[in-house]
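Lab meeting notes turned into a lecture example. A postdoc, R.K., suggested we walk through two folding results consecutively so the class can see how the record format repeats. The first protein's sequence and structure tokens come next.
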Amino acid sequence: MARFLWGEGDIANSLANLRKLVSRIKGRQSDLKAEFLTFDDTDIHLACGSVSSDIIPMRTDTPGTPAENLAVFARSLHSKFLKKANCRSRAFLDWRESERRRHLEALKAALDALVNSPAAEGAAANIKEAALLLFEAEPQDEKTHRILLKAFDIEGNLEQLKAMFARRRDLAPSWPATLPAAPNSQKPLSSARSPYGIGAAAQSDTAMRPVIRIPRLALLPPGNDSEDITAIMVASALIEDITLGFCALHSLRVIAPYSAIQISRQGENQLALFERYDINYVLETQLSGSNNDLSLFTQLISLPGNEVVWAERFNFGKLDMVRNKRDISRQIVLAAAAEVERHEMTRAYFEHNPAAYHRYLVGQQYLHRLTLPNMRRARTELKAALRQSADFAPALSSVARTYSKEWLLTARGDDELLKSAEDFAMRAITIRNDLSDGYRELGVVRLFRGSIDESVEALEMAESLSPHHADVIADHADTLVHFSQPRLALEKIQHAMELNPINPDSYLWTAAGANYALGQFQTALDHIGQMADPSLADRLAAASWAMLGHRNEARLLVRRVRETNPDFDVDRWLSLIPSKEEWHRDLYREGLKKAGF
């Protein structure tokens, strides 16, 4: 026992440690007036009947039914065997590892026996739970995969899983991914492309292949705003199906539901736990409504940047919830897995040149704050990134953004700023025509230059490439405001706000503009009031106050605009700001004139 606990190094010291340990145990048992262990000159004995043990059932043939035995194994193995024991001897560590392996083999044997027995259908929930525990421990084991297949088949879902694998072959023919084609070419990528827009030349360039770790995903239990018992049952079953579906994929590691539940209960400590357990993505779900009006909002978040990379709302309606649940679980697994792979490939491209990527990230921090000094600081950092990597497309498109935002903030109609923005956006598209950012910036520039139809076309392309990128959707909404489609713009900006719930000022500004065009002037002011820097929208706020008949509030804002831009002229400004329909321009002119501009 001394060698087992303290190793072979210094046996005299180990024996001394053992004597002290025995003494402390005896003293503690005396205090408790209980006896768990007894000692004689040569042996240590476990006092019969003194303790209950979850190890003993693992060492004997359990007398229950196969389903009962499986439940015992699954309950015991939710925690790692002797996880907190801190003995460091090689003998102890080897023994503990062999016991863990033996427990998993016992679980696997029990599962294998049960899924092939007539009792399997009645034990479907236990089988799923145990299969997920097994998969978490052995994600690459082929026998585990076969058990997962059988677990699907119990409830008639085998065809669903086969369809999922067939679709996965189309979505991700290989893993790990390759990097994009070498960026020294000035022509668009070849039409012979992988599903993620990676050039054929890059696929054959094995020297460019990074070793990408398989990302790990946590599926948090759903928030439930419904008191409906049926809704709670549907949510629980849906999460089981989704988790099991993720487990069947080789390009993702998913943590078991028990661990996900524990993480979800931590509140403020969640981020630290995500980092500790090497979790790269989180799938959040929110179920709301009653049986006849049930909906599920799902979003996939990339950590640590807290970026929403995919989101969707599913309306259950009055459909058969069991059938609909399976369809929705399949859609979520396929869509979320595809987005993870696309995001991982993009990340690999971004990180190809670490120095350029670092300067790019610094520039992005400035770019998020809509002031002239920050636009110029961002441009300095982004151009430094381009000196490190001249064809780094994300930096090119971000430089374009600094110019277009400066044009908007200065309100002087400087066409040179827009020409520069368009040039950088076109360069970004030429180098990477599979990324949305270049099209996004081109759409913004074309809007400011009055080519509204071309702007809408470019932003539709950007959104098709990144359908869940909140900023792209927000810019598309802004273009639709100028396209004199305020209702459609409002729907789109509300979707962007849902994806990015801590709304940037630009989102609120766009929402205010859409509401103004709809004659909802107070709602426009409410959005402006939520901005971190409402002075950015002083002209729109002044027009809204004036249209509501509050001349004093409007005049105050007019004076503030004049302080920063004394030469502001309504007609000149409106000639620069594009509007598809004349009524839209007239409505804005009316408000600005009433305000006192």
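The second example is placed directly after the first for contrast:
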Amino acid sequence: MDHQKTAAGVLQGVGGEENVQSLVHCATRLRFVIKDDAKVDKAAVKATPGVIATAEAGGQYQVVIGNDVPEVYAEIGKISSLTGNGPSAASSAAKEAPKGNPLNRFISMISAIFTPLLWALAGTGLLKAFLAAAVTFGWIDTTTTTYTVLNALSDAFIYFLPLALAITSAKYFGAQQFTSLALAGALVYPSIVALNGSPDLTFLGIPFTMVSYVSSVIPIIIIVWLQSHMERFLYAKLHSSIRRFATPMVIVLTLVPLTFLVIGPISNLISGGLAGGIGWLFEVAPWLGGAVMGGMWQVFVIFGLHWGFIPLFVVEMQDTGLILMLAPVFAAVLAQASAVAGVWVRTRNKNLKSLAAPATLSGFLAGVTEPAIYGVNLPLKRPFAFGVVGGVIGGALLAAGGVASNAFVLASALALPALFGTGSTLLLILGLAAAILIPFLLTVLVGFKDPAEDAVVAAEGNDVEVRSPLDGTVVPLSETPDAVFAEGGLGQGVAIVPRSGAVYAPFDAVVVAAFPTGHAVGLRHADGAELLIHVGIDTVKLGGKHFTLKTETGQHVKAGDLLVEFDLEAIKAAGYDLTTPVVVTNSDLYPEVGSPASGPIAHGDPLFFAQAVESIVPEK
């Protein structure tokens, strides 16, 4: 099959892109929601090479392709604005990555991949911080099953971070998500994790060194990037009868051993060399070793190179009862936490502020800096750099004073007692003060490029399900007898011809606009999607007659709450069309709707998904 010709032929046959309300695909079929059936040349579609059959069901015009449907779907995405998502097409995020220097491109990639994970990281990190505080103050016993459960709840997401990154990386690079999950699952499989540090490991007779991939970031991103290229190659070379199962089999069989044999050992070699070099610096010039450790520790964490220091920490603890190299890590962690605290104080962006707040607390209290780094400091660049500066100065002072940790702990404010009683007390105080105050003051005073005040964080993972606010019949928005709505001037959505006189909340929301005339209501979902429900066309001219408003601006409502009652027959008798547009108005953040319903519908039934973009986007 020539996928390009099949895609072009089918799209032309259905009346072109302008005649398609939406397009999805299943295992064998392209599923079109058509605007005007009269414009579909059904004979031409059936005659298109590669088309097996056509069918009409469930409000969809279905074109049966067979095993090659993902490739044809992807090709349609290339020649239209109907987005392709097959293995032969790179994702829009990867295509639209900024050109710039390699550092900017790397930061942009990391930010895009981490954006959907930020709130889960922030929430579980904050839970971990509270749990650490409870242990420190003796509120909970670490030997109890309660602690075991709470520790698992707070630690699992970061522990299995490669699994989450597999999903977002697959989206970014245009790879198959479940194959990516299979790759990530192998890296953190219990029996594989147990091999870490074991001697004399071999695979097919080839010796290798196993390193820990728990909580790692870079290895899975590299693997999924390789996967995306392998998939495109294999899908082009393998026959359609076997490519569905043969491609993931070959990829998993190739890339997982490659990681264990090459990527892991290279990472281990680099981190071991860094650890040895910095250990030597601590012997020759402690202040310089502390500066490097304090400034670069978070960079090592980003690239997964920090694991090479763990053996040195353990050996030093066994030999001397102290860990000199661990003290500057406190400076590094507290410096990044302090930088994100500066963002929290300075930014006027409400959503950025709401992300910086839990990131600050989890960074300081539990030493969990992932939400701070990936969600705030690294994307904003300057705060991350200010954190590095604070880590350098604080780490140098701590090391110069001979400050060491008397226990193997995770660096955080709650673990600071591990540093007490070792080395110079004055330099301990000065080092910690420098690590905390310098990044905070630089971030607050020098500042950073603050996103627009009304910017919000939106991600593909934050798509919002909108349920029907009315009983009635769903029609395409283009059939609305009002050009502004019909052409999408106020946003994308659908229209409903009501059969009863009540409007219900389609999701949990805040009422941002309850028009006194009762003819329209504006709602905002917690994830940022803003929805306008406009009962009828030009009904504002009724001045509230025949409408009864049941809510008010600023009120929090639950899905299914009654918002408006109206006299359907009286409004019709007054000569008004009751076609009701339901549209997402902040289209810069939610530019498309997916899986729109059609035909008869009851309130509370799924209507469509408001599909979000994948970055912090200023509102227009």
